[in-house]
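Notes on consecutive records. When two proteins share a document, each keeps its own sequence and its own token line. Never mix them. Below: protein one.
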Amino acid sequence: AWIDRIPVGIPFTLWVFSYLFSLSGPFRVSFIVATAVLLPFLLLKESWLSRILGSGACKWIGKRTYSMYLFHAFVLSAIEEHLIHPVSNIRYLAVVATVYGGTLCVAALAYVVLEKPSISWGRKLSREYTTARLRSSPGRFQEGSEASPEPALNA
């Protein structure tokens, strides 16, 4: 396939440069396009970068991304306005690194305190609902029959 003939370092390098150019503002679309070009290389090709993204650390962060999405604006506002107001590219990169670190800390706490208990509670409710539906419709599922124990969606 054509994707196997192109080293992953080429689209990755273009992606990094497009990010650096996007910091100045007018090239933000180039970063979006470069990300769209990079994704097939990460998803369809076994490479050092895909192995890094499949590592335990990246999986750990991946489970906390929803919390990161929810809380990043609060952390960004606190850090950018109260601690460091970026006036140069170096200070901007410092803000980005600090915001990522701070957001990850908040997200890790939110994952343990909010997300995991909510997911467990939702699964429990789903099991109870399914069990109640099966009990309320006798004869729909009989031991040893070919019928599915899952309730019908339109019932």
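Protein two starts on the next line and is unrelated to protein one.
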Amino acid sequence: GLALFPRKLIFPTLRKNVESFWPGSIVKFLGGVAIPDNMTELKQFFAEMEYLLLKGRIVHFFPEGELKPYYTGLRTFKKGAFHLASQARVPIVPISITFKQPKGIAKLYRRKPTMVVHVGQPVLPTSADSQTDLHTRKEIIRMQMNDVISKSFK
């Protein structure tokens, strides 16, 4: 939620993440919105996300569908975020997360790896056909994110 500060973004999250009192308040403040539990609500949810994109709001999705803490690879992308961007004809900004082990004196007090957020260049629509655009941009972004992740291991 802070990667694009000062712009506030919207990000889908599990319902339990926004319904709990204390953490839920923070998640909602940072832009979290609950993902519906059933297909009827899900269709409305995607329509609302598309509307927000058309209005110029930033909607953040993990293309794999979920965040796995400290996972260092790239999993299979789901098409939801790409479908929305193709329908709304908006750019997609790839954001990759890598981790680096603490070095020097930080090793004495920090056990977990440090998260590094890499914000890529926007990928504009490539085709007037939404299905072609979806698949093309999905592949372009997969390659860009793989490049960032593979460079972080060198």
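For the record: The beta strands are 9-13, 32-34, 58-59, 95-100, 114-119.
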